[in-house]
Amino acid sequence: MNPGKILIGQVGIVLIVIVMTNWYATQWVAEALAYQGALGAPWFSIGKQPVYMPWRLFQWWYAYEAYAPEVFAKAGLIAASGGLFGILVAVIGSVIRSQDAKFVTTYGSARWATPKDVRRHKLSGKEGVFLGRYRGRYLRHAGPEHIMAFAPTRSGKGVGLVVPTLLSWTGSAVIHDIKGENWTLTSGWRSTFSDCIRFDPTNAKSPRFNPLLEVRRGEGEVRDAQNIADILVDPEGSLERRNHWEKTGHALLTGVILHVLYAEEDKTLAGCARFLSDPGRTFTETLRLMMSTPHLGTHSHPVVAQAARELQNKSENERSGVLSTALSFLSLYRDPVVAEVTSMSDWRIEDLVGGERPLSLYLACPPSDVSRTKPLMRLVLNQIARRMTEQEPDPSRRKLLLMLDEFPALGRIDFFETALAFMAGYGIRAFLVAQSLNQIEKAYGPNNAILDNCHVRVAFATNDERTAKRISEALGTKTELRSQKNYTGHRLAPWLSHMMVSRQETQRALMTPGEIMQLPATDEIVMVAGVPPVRAKKLRYFKDGNFTRRVLPPALADRMEEGQQDSWITVASGGPPSWRPGDGAGRETSGGLILEPELDSPKRDPNVDVSELAKELDDEGQVEEAPNMKAVRRAAGMDKEGSDFLPDF
């Protein structure tokens, strides 16, 4: 709006206030004098009520003050109050004008969210993942969209984001838990309504999971085997294009996986490695065995036979190179501990959404073995993401949360990056935590789609300039009015008699990169698509009685039951049992009947009323400490290096 029009309107309102006050004083005097004829004829009448001209008060005052001094004295006060009201209106108008001047949008309209914005977009509801605190209330997001958090080490991402969410989420969850602290703090409460599993490939007593048993017999078996081979040939997640050896190794591994599932007793990845490197036969004899074994009753599996024939048609040196490449991808599973943990399946991927109870799967691994076990963790997550998005979305299916702390440490998972765009439609919600933008770009490249698919972003004070610049650009630009005052007058005068004020519109980032890097340790920035950014406070679960009451002793981490039954347990090769090297038939040890008995499905604990666990958390009824804080302190003491769970502020 034109400032000149605003000023004219303000002057007009002041004049109207003064005139109306005088008019009221005139009518009051006429009523006090009983509308005598000496007052003259009225201007007009409303019903039986005569109405006089506003300025008649001054005529009557001049002519009749001596007859009614008290009446005119009060009328004078009423008229004088009009001037005071006019001054008040002028001041209020000036304040409103100054406020309007703050919302100029010439260069940008970025601003911080107000409490009204937070309420309107339902960020202070009773459900959803925790994002922080705003004006003393929890800041939560209950939509299906994904969340990304930028939080350097020792910044409080565990105590403010991960733990509070896990202590309130009542659906199934997959938690990437490198240090094991999330298990210590949250598995106790989660075990009251869900099956808690701590999958640790470096612990021989860990609940087991055999990726090969997730291959479904029938028309989908080749697809499942190829998906496993995809991850095996890219153990670090660093390949953008495969070379010749990796492509041929992929085809060989696909054939070997299917052959092992149909014909070998050891149906594991360790069994695949032993099959390829069996010292009792040459590689040529191994390929001949793959082609001659009757996987499908009377004939061999076409994919297995084609993979073997493709290699037999190559030269000896090339075959040797392909074998070496394939075996290098299986080297992790030569570790007897990893082989034991992947020998059977104590849990299945379908249990996440189709089990009797929710499943809380903690993918734990000591930091010293993160790099070595990365291929297995990547394989598990890849299988979960693919399996959960194969069928049509089912609204009645149990919701799944992927809580992936330090997820760039897993390397590039191509399908995961692509699946973020449509996983939300399948009831899968990802909560990704990274230290900086550099971490993500190192794993997924500079043109990745990770950030594009995250509807909610939470940023702490960062140490990385590029991340700070990216956040500053995301916050946007605002327009400011800057005033410049010029004083003029004689230099020897006691004061400068003239002052000129000019205003100029300038642009400014809502927060500069430097300000983001200097953000107080208690503050955070929450950016939700379609909502002005929220300047919020970090949540501290150990200072909130709602959460410390839920910190219980951790659940048992060791496996308690035998492996689950699967469709491959009764599959055996129909090949000849008397195969010897060189005769092209199947050996007894390679194609014999499987002697593992079928086991009953494990019994589950009685269901717990999940709705009772998801009851509203009380924003007001907090306590500083709770009896369960001993467990919290013990958990924090596990990491003497200093974890993110009890930061110093």
Brief sketch in words of this structure:
The chain is of the alpha/beta class. 39% of the residues lie in helices and 14% in strands. Helix 7 packs across helix 8.
Give your account of this protein's structure:
Among the domains are: 3-102, no CATH class; 212-341. The protein has 23 helices and 15 strands. The protein has helices spanning 3-32, 56-64, 69-102, 115-120, 157-166, 181-190, 221-232, 244-263, 269-276, 283-292, 302-312, 316-329, 336-341, 351-354, 370-388, 414-419, 437-444, 465-475, 513-517, 545-548, 588-591, 610-613, 629-636; strands at residues 44-46, 49-51, 129-134, 137-141, 146-150, 172-177, 195-199, 359-364, 400-405, 428-434, 454-459, 477-488, 498-509, 523-528, 534-537. The protein has a 9-stranded mixed beta sheet, sandwiched between helices. The protein has a two-stranded antiparallel sheet with strand order 1-2. A two-stranded antiparallel ribbon has the order 3-4. The protein is elongated. 40% of the residues are buried. The model is unreliable at 573-605, 623-627 and 631-649 (pLDDT under 50).
List keywords for this structure.
649 residues, alpha/beta, nine-stranded mixed beta sheet, two-stranded antiparallel ribbon, elongated, disordered C terminus
Helix content: 25-40%
N-to-C CA distance: 47 Å
Which band does the percent of strand residues land in?
Answer: 5-15%
Number of helices: 23
The main sheet orders its strands as 7-8-6-9-10-5-11-14-15
Report low-confidence residues grouped into runs of 5 or more.
573-605, 623-627, 631-649
Radius of gyration, in Å, reads 38 Å
- General form: elongated
Rounded average pLDDT: 82
Q: Could you give the count of β-strands?
A: 15
Category from helices, strands and their pairing: alpha/beta
Major sheet characteristics: 9 strands, mixed
How is the quaternary structure best described? single chain
